[in-house]
Structures are given as structure tokens and as C-alpha cells.
Design goal:
The protein is α/β, with parallel strands linked by helices. 22% of the residues lie in helices and 30% in strands. α1 runs parallel beside α7 (298-312). The longest helix is centred in the middle third of the chain and has 18 residues, at 184-201.
Length: 410
Amino acid sequence: MAGSEHPIVIVGASLGGAKAAEALRGAGYRGGIVLIGEEHERPYERPPLSKGYLLGKEAREKIYVHPPQWYAEQDVTLRLGTAVTAIDPARHTVTLADDGEVAYHKLLLTTGSVPRRLPVPGADQDGVLYLRRVEDSDRIRAALRPGARIAVVGAGWIGLEVAAAARTAGAEVTVLESLELPLLRVLGREVAQVFADLHRDHGVDLRFGARVAELTGADGTVTGVRLGDGSEVPADAVVVGIGISPATALAEAAGLEVDNGVKTDQHLRTSDPDVYAAGDVANAFHPLFGTHLRVEHWANALNQPQTAARALLGQPDAVYDRVPYFFSDQYDVGLEYVGHTEPDGYDRVVFRGDVAGREFIALWLKEDRVLAGMNVNVWDVVDPIRELIVSKRTVSTDRLADPNIPLGDV
């Protein structure tokens, strides 16, 4: 059994991994830290890849979590371009692709997620693009030229943000979605319609109930999308955004409990007491909601590592109970969402403000308790929305809908 003379090893040189190393040093830990990443880039943030960086408004240097010298200054061993192929919890070791081995005292998994691939003929051609890494964003940006024909498969957050960037760049955009509205599983029908209208108003050809049968091509390069009804959408590039899957292969092979991610308790500890998980890959028990939640958003990767670091250092009060949060930017619409509800978990949506003018707050309720809220082009209201959620108090929906009553007074 490895002892405490061995380092804390973090697998996944992501935002979560880098923030965990930072939090460990911030908490006074002076032992060894080894941060291992498969990518050749030092840890960076992913939201700009579909927002400012994709639009060319944000410089590449701005996406990185830390400057290059930070890792040496903090005595963090950063091993990039290095794949971990196995974890041996009994021996407290991780095996590397070059057959090397690193022993650990404690282990943190921040391996994130991988894009779901489109399972149709022709999906392996050039010009079929996914968005996960910075080089993916570079490829998509190169395709977003004035007059270019861009087909986007999937009307989730990534698909819609790419569609907005493409239209902003002057490309012709068709979005293909199997459901009848964008973001339907995330926002429900009432709010999803807002985003259908937004993209149509910006000239996007939205096609709902669309089933992709094949990606057509010539000489190994994609030329279009053939749908289940036999029609074809011509395309110079196809961007696929049909969701992501947690990167759990290492954890599964190591015998850790996996169910829609690596299952952890509220301390982010897995079924092995010396292995923890944070970020996209972690399906963590959330004490506020009384269930396991796996949140695929930047705020989780930013904040969970603070808890994981304290838990790794044996602090029993290290509990992750922050309310989930995410944000999106599309055209001239900015939004923030806080809370959590399943598609069938609410019984009404209350709006306050100007929905048609896209300057409003939407609140999802069940039995007059606020479960989640989204502010669209309305700012500085996340804290009172969060307080409504955490309090679990029943509220007057009439007062909630009245924009003249501050949310903090509801």
C-alpha cells in the first residue's frame, strides 16, 4: 500500500484538474502534486471555444487557466500529451501509455467527457466537426466564412452557440434537431420556444423532427446531410452537437462504481476511499436535492475542485452543495441559469418581464416552490433566485411574476 510520501495524482489536465491543484496549494498542502493530461495544451477553459474564442473576439492566451510558469512556481508536475491507460486502486498506481507508472497517495479524476459521435454512414469524412478541444474550435472557426453552408446537427447549447457564431460570421446555417424544439429536454416547451424564435429571427433554417440518415460526400469530404425523408441539406461543413458522455472508461476498468458518471458521495469521494472525482465525470450526491447529479457545465468544473481538494486533505466538512449554474451567449442574448429540474419535474413556469423582447426571468416551480430560474438579458438576479431555491419555501406566483416586486422580497 502506498503511503503519504507519494503525491496526490490528478488525472485530467482540465479546468477541474488545474483548479484542484490550485486549491490544494491554497489549503496549505506541500506534498507532491502530479497533474496528467492527454492533450498537449496546458489546462484551459472550454466555454470560450463555443463563444468568444470561436467568434474571434477572445485571444487564445485568454483561455488558459494559469500562465505557463505557474505550474513550476507552485511545484506542480504537469505531464501533458500523456494518456493514463489504467488505474490500480489496490497498488495505488496509475499506468501511462508509455508503460510508465505513477504511484499515488490519493487520486482525483477530472477526466471530463467526450462528444457523442453521429452513428450514420459518412460521419468519418473530412468536414464533419465536433467541439470539445481548442483545436476543434480552430477547425470550426476556419469553416465559418461568409456564404459558407453550415449544417448543425443537434439544437442543444453547443449546437445553438455554434449556429449563432456561424450566422454572426455570415454563414448560411441549417440546424437539424430530432425533437420539436431546441433545448426541449433542458428548458421544457415554454422556454424552448424563445430560442426557436431567436434563431429564426437571425435567419437560421431550423428543422425539427429531423432524422439524420447519412452524411453525403465526395472524395472523402462531406457535402451534405441526407435526412430520413430522403431530402438533403447541402453543407460545406457539418458540426455535430448531440451531447456528451462522461469519460468513465478508466474508472469502470478500475472497478469504481459508475452510473451516468463516476458515482461519488457529497464529499466527491468515489466507492474507493482514496479516489475522488470532480467536474463533468462526477455523478455526485447533492444534499440540497437529495439525489445524485452530474452537471456538464463550467461552474461545476470551477467549483467542485475546491471541495475535492479539502476532502483529499481529510477535512470532514468538505461538502459540495452549490446550486448548479451555467450561462450562454447567443447573438445579443445573454443568459444565466441556476437550479435543477428534470423535464417532468416541474408543474409550471412563471415569467416576469418582457418575453417577446427577450428581457425576462423564467422560474420553474413545483407545488409553488422554485426549483430553477433563468435570467435572459436581466442581470444581478442570480443570488435572489438561488435563495428562493435553497429556501424551499412556497411562494406567491402572482408576486413572483410581478416585475415591480424585487425577487429578494418575494
